[in-house]
Design a protein that fits this description.
By secondary structure, this protein is an alpha+beta fold. It is built from 56 helices and 23 strands. The chain starts with a strand and ends with a helix.
Amino acid sequence: MAEGPDRLPVDEDTQEVLRGKLRLLQPDSTEVTALFMELATHIHSISSEESIILLTFKTFDEIWKFTTYYSLGFLDQCMESLLFDPKFWINSLDRDNLGIDVSVPEDTLHLMFKGLLMQEGSFFASCSTNQIFDSSTSGGDLYLEQGDIAQFEPPFLGSGWSVMSLNDGARGTKLKPFLEPVIPFYQWFLKSCPENILVGSGKPVCNFPLHFARGTCLAIAEYCAEGPDQLSVAPGDRIAIVGLLVSGFDWFMGRAEATGALGLVKTTLVEPADNLCESTDIYLDKEEKSFFCLKEELIIQETTALLKKTSQSDIGYVYKLGRMEIKYFFFGFEIPRNSFGDVDADAQVELKANMERILVQGQVTSSHSRWESETESSGDTILQASPTSSHPKTPCFTVHAPVEGNTNVENFSPLLSFLEDGDYRPEFAVLYGETAELLSSSVFTGYTDEDELTAFLSVARETARKKRFHWSQSRVCFLLGKLCAGRSKFSQARVYLEEALSVPKDGFVDMRLLAAIYANLAHIYLLQKNTEKYFAMAERLTALIMAIPECIASVKDHAKVLKYTLKKAVLSQNKMAEARTCFVLAKCYLMRDEETSALPYMERLLDLSVEGSCNIPPSHVYLSLGRIYSTRSLPHLSVCSARRAALQATATLSDCLGGLALALQNSSKLFWLRSQEGSLPSHAAAYLRRALSLVDDSARGPSEDARKEEGEWHVLSHTLTLCLSRLFQKHGMDARAIDTVRAFINCPQRSLSLPASERRSTLIWLAWLHICNKQEDAALDVLNAILESLPEHCTSPQEGLVLNMRGIALRRQGHLRRAAESYQAADDICEEFEDMPNWAVAQANFGLLCLKAGAKTLAERHLTRALELFSALEEEGLELHFVSVLLELGQHYVNQGQLHYGKGCYEWALLLAIKAGQSDSQLTATQQLCHLYGTVSPDQACCIIYNEHQLHLLAARGDRGHEGDVLQTISELYLSLGTEKAYRAALDNTKRSLGIFIDLGQREKEAYGWLQAGKIYHMLGQKELVDLYIQAAQDIGLITGDTGFVLTLLEAAGDVFFNSSQERDKAVCFYRDRALPIALKAGSVRSRLRLCHKLVDLLLSLKRYEDAVECAQTALDISITLEESLSERVSYHRLASLYQHLGQSELAEHHYLKALSLCPAPLQFHEETLYYAEVYQTLGDIIFYDLKDPHDAAGYYHLALAAAMDLGNKRAQLRLCTRLATIYHNYLVDRQLSLSFYQRARAFATELNVRRVDISASQRTVMRR
């Protein structure tokens, strides 16, 4: 990505964002495939890290079109359309020439080009050096100079290269010729030429010093004209060049300065005079230069109508809904609003003065209103075709059947008198330009068949010859030749046309007739394969089209004969002549409505302009090219052409508006330009801003026309201002939207040109922008000014709209009472005018105000009333407000604990949003339902359903980042179901999210995705894949270079096995061998503590007691250092358990007592008492069974019994009383206590229905131990 005139690279952060967008591209996606198909190529793969897209080509046509689009700059813009999000188009307005620079490896592309040419067989190439070819005919060797273009054929079965010269058709062979293929356009054009055009006419001799000359030249030799179309000259005669003199061509059109005679002059007979100069313009007059343009007035009217239709505004008649917190969602998530801050005091004073002026001013003049109404009623036929001049009236003549021997001259008088005028008349255009069929059907009537018409004209010809009506005779011969050619009688047609060319005696004045004769004769010579005469006639025709722009209309039906002109320009390497001929060919085809045939020549014309070979206004051609692309269903290329046309430095207002209209027409066909109905795509911002600046320049123009159209400019400026400000506001750029509207209002000449209602609507829109930008004071200034300007005793619907918005501003300021009064006034006006849609909004605003005031019952009543009103409406366009009210009411019910009503409101809102096609509202409602069923009222099945719908909405919007997060959430929901089918569904979603995170380059999420997939495979019992996925997670984690993340990831990998019942020993490797060393190195003490605790628990369950002691001791030391009382107690307890298992009873007793000493006193929970009971019983067992100390054991049992009694646990008391009775009976020999504990134990056994314990048996068991 680069910016500025020097195309310097942008900062690395922006480049990384671009690479991230590139990662999102899916080569097989519908949008990407469609784009590259339009670019005539096939996408192979995408390497986001190297910012490379690999493409393939299958045919020569593909590589030709691709290189053309690349040279015209379309490839850069297409990549921008793929990689730039809508917000970027808005943010980049202030950056100078910011865009993507796409580079194509020229060498690789050239190799592919050569390979495709070799596959197709013969191709055209220029010689890299002077070389001789062995003759394959009876003549001498073929000699080609450097730069000569010839047709080459690759060797076959060991033979050499075959070559055919285009100059004379000579052929030769060479083993290894030095050649370079000509550009793809030349390849296509030369292959499309018939052989009798392609070969012959000799090598172009470019002996004139200037390639494209204008001015005056001097004759250097005498020449006598051989026909009326030529000019006789003598040495030293000054000849003014008419049009252009093109070096390399045989003739040019000249005018003798001495006599004023006009005719063709041989290029070889003249030399430059003192005022001769090189021309840089291929156009001969203003009409040619504006051929590709549409009328500016038509474009302004139709584009204004299109903008009003596309960007529909309801600000002047629909109430705004003031939500509790104004949020704007784009791609489903909140867009941050750019705060404008405090309003400048001086700017506010200026605004107030201008508001007062435009509110007091009366209605604008009726002319402006009429213009606006005409604009609004304009049709949708925008930029469909280039404008054509008005057609002259078609002449009509009655055919009288000739009678042999009786020629009535009066029958031919109307025709001959009409045709005798030597000068051109507009009525002759039909005779020269129409086909033979149209000519015979539209100009002549009263005949039964074409033979009768031909006979009539033959007699007319003879009559004109006898009466010496030379011009009539010439034109009648032309008509006869045209009719005969239409009936495929080419020899007869040639005779008539040659006679038409030779009849005039004083030279041709009607150059359009001369051009028509040349074109028809050349066409016949071409069909008869009379190449010598064809070349001679084509040379003369070339001189005419290089001199007289009107002649093109006479040759439009024979554009093929002009291929000779282009061939000669190519062979002589005259770029200006090539550009001129491409323009003429494109014009001919467009005049015949053959846009597809004109397309290659228009593209080549632009290509020559980009190269700097010719100087043309490119915007006009780009715009015409875009219209053709649009009709051929190539929307990407059409929009690229429109953008190139509108943003050229030389672009006019009509170019900019035409490009905007073209982009809007194709926006529905492009996924990156799609927008909701009634709004403009963000891509239109650049067009709008450029058009706005051009409108200002036009309105300030000094010309009388500019002053007359000043009102029209201001109406257009108003439309552009509103559209641009809405785009800014839509994307959270409220401050820029305010600046845009203020700039319009602060120019009184603009605002006063609008009707009063439009001016008030503009001010209302400004007030709303201030509210969105949290500038309530500024909004209230505007709204109060509007209210003061309205009649005092006459209410209107617009007054209610202003009062409603005023209530929103006051509520946001905290003036709840004043806001309530304003809302009530708006509510009363709605009721008075029975404005039900706005009444529903007013009720909703009242309800939201009550919510903020804490009057929940009153708020619920007003919101419910608003829902009733919305439900009764049949109008469309209110769904967004309806959905917003449902969401607010649903949130209120959820907060009140009325979940059933809350669910109903959310689901109703979702259904309405789906019906209205409001994707933002759908996403908001779906997110609320996901939160409700996931957190507030857990329901796994419903939560999965709504998350799946949210996933569908995000996928449709292309928000792949949040799409991956939702997939992870769905995966967790499926895992919680605990069935094999649910596990497999979770695995599918995890893999989809993993693919997204890989594309996005989100390494941490990618690592967790690999780990999650490994965990699911472990739960499914597919052990062979678990290690593979976990290892991939570790590898990705290490790539991040984040030690803390790697540590967390390794611990999570260990948890996969730790929390399972299978292969738990694998967790030891992750905890002890991988995670602990990293935690130690990173100094993460708490991570070490947590890992040590997990290791102790794990090793204890695996009965690896000695290994567990070390980890438990480390956990104890860290707990003491951190003064973590609970962790320290746990560590002491686990150490005691480990020492007990290892048979180290004294250490076990010590650590149990240390754990007990850390227990809080007094005891607060039953769990703590239970812990006391169990530990003291364990201590008693250790002392009694292992250390054989009945006295101390009895003490611990007593403490355990006390805790059990506190708990009321009778089974524990039974067990402890039994043991104490045994100890006192057999060891301490205290009959009284023994009997007491025995009786208590017997009582518990009876109560619990437990068999009485046999003390003697227990004693024997004890003795054996």
